[in-house]
Amino acid sequence: MPFLEQLAGNLIYGAILGAVYGLATMGLSQIFGVLKIVNVGHGAFIMLGAFTAYWMFTLYSINPMLSIPIALVIGLSMGLAVFYTVIRRLIGAPELSSLLATFGIGIFLEELAKFFWGPDHRGYTWNIGSVNLSITLIPYSKLLAFGMSIIIALILYSIFQKTRIGTAIRAVVEDREGAMVCGVNVTRIYALSFAIGIGLTVMSGVLVTLFVPVGINPYMGGEYTLKAFVIAVLGGLSSPWGAFVGGFIFGLLENGSYTILSLFPNVEPFSLTRFVAFSVLLIILLVKPTGLMGGEGE
Amino acid sequence: MRRYVRPMIPVIILYLTLLLVGLSSESRWQPVAFIMFYIALGQALNMFLGMTGYVDFGYVAFLALGSYGMALAFSSFSSLGLWVILLGFVLAIIMSSLLSLAVGAIALRLRGAYFAIATIGVNEGFRYLVEGVRLWGGSEGIIISSTMKDIFGSDLSNYISTFVADIMVFVIGFIAAFLTVYIINSRIGYALMAVREDEDAARVMGVFATKYKIMAFAMSAIFAGLIGASAWTLKLTYVFPEDVFNITYTVEAIAIVMLGGAGTLTGPIMGGLIYGFLRYYLSTVLPGFQLLVVAPLLVLIVTIFPEGVMGYVKRKVRNTRFEKYII
Question: B298, A115: Cβ pair inside 8 Å?
């Protein structure tokens, strides 16, 4: 059964990619969950992470796994900078303002990247062998990305559950005024949440490079912004954990539907997988806007 | 009657000035047409976004359908002669309004960020459907330049795409301004204002919010469709899904509305004027890097100057004799 083998192979690949998708969406959900701001410039930060990995690898031959902490530092500091210059003024403002501002930030980053690094598509190969699963060949680099996504998500989870900062963040999500009365510095929590969100996103950009051999360019982020929207809505938009699970579902859906849609004559299966993705987005928004895993109400 | 005429005076002055500047020399016509596209776009979006406060991030889909409507008229009904343009506009209206009714009936139940994301989803979903099932030429799009030459001859089709198409955008923008004045002064306008300020309260007071929201949405979509039909298909003579579903146009339209002042009549015109001029000017001094300047400017406007140029002017002229002219 070549079809079933192909489907199984693609689903395994989808699950691996899904973990990275999940990580790449956690930042978006984290920021929306705490600040109620949709970061439309999300993909631009993924692009920054991808370029971080690319330059570290080609200039200093630092392997992508070691670029992750570097990306985290870059992301956290950028997050803080963007928060204190722009986002701080937009808290509680109408959606119009925050959507437009974050989109502006995204375009600005893209144009800066184009200005400094040019519009070319770049890429690198980090070849460390692969494991043969008889139905498909999985490179170790992708398995490492899979593992790393899960580890980062778990670390974030324990920070949220076990530390004082995490408790404070959860308190602000639960009840802003209440947290303020209890002595939580809400603005600082906002800043920190935004910075963590951006940090996660830039880190995920590093891992994304292991899946796009020659796709690193200033405008690569747009695609991930759109995918992140779908995934975030799958997971309930304001929950980073929901987003992580949503990433898995999305990865499976994307790669599974690709295999099935390839069977039809006269269609472009690649475009249709995206059509499927956005249809899922609309259906979920209509039927259960709190996400598949989300609870009741908002 | 005076409440309709007086606010139109600044609009007419602005439009006439722009038209005269454009006609004064041949080299000025293209920049003016470029600016005019943005003015019309801002006015069309303002009817919905400015009036209701809902952010449609997939707005460009209506322009896309309008431009497909015109292209389909050319590719399927080329035997009609000059009437094909009229048919194209009719198709543009039908297609964009049908999509707006479908999206409106479904997505307008959502609010805030959820509505914005849903509309992005509609736009992208539609684009990939067109490419995926090879609808209307799929990703190769529809090219009408040769059909146009066959019908009109090369001189007339040249004239149509370099002059008539631009004049059409002028006319569409002007009609949009008229309609905006009418809406602002009518029951619909009051209802929409109530919805924008507090939808739940408006509903409790007996305003049928859904009806008015869909009306504003459909009107706005129809104008977007007309702009797409003339400024894209007639002018450029081709339609590619990658271009016409490009989210950048949505954001440009939102930026224009905000820059000028959302919900005001003259706002989108001023916004389009400033934005269009800036983009055109920057593309001559900084070719390829206009956005590097436009993007931070966008962020700056939103954070520091959210009421927009005409919002500010409107506040300043309150209780003066100019009050009735600026709405």
Answer: no
Contact A197, A28 (CB under 8 A): yes
Q: Does A122 touch chain B (CB under 8 A)?
A: no
User: Would you put residue B288 in left (φ > 0), alpha (ψ -120 to 50) or beta?
Assistant: left
CA count, 13 A, side-chain hemisphere, A248 = 12
The residue behind tokens 């209509």 is A286
Domain that holds residue A198: 2-121+132-287
Which domain covers residue B230, as residue numbers?
A: 2-316
What ipTM is given for this predicted complex?
0.80
Full-model pTM: 0.86
Size of interface A-B (CB pairs under 8 A): 138
* Domain count along chain B: 1
**What CATH number is attached to the domain comprising B305?**
1.10.3470
The token pair at A10 is 């693609």
Q: Which residues contact B145 (CB under 8 A, 6 or more apart)?
A: B157, B237, B238
Judging contacts by C-beta atoms under 8 Å, the chain A residues touching residue B132 are 267-272, 274-275
Nearest CA to A11 among A135, A128, A132, A140? A135
Q: What is the pLDDT of residues A175-218, one digit of tens each?
A: 888 888 888 888 888 999 999 999 999 999 999 988 887 888 89
- Looking at every residue in chain A, the average pLDDT score rounds to 86
A133 to chain B nearest CA, in Å?
31
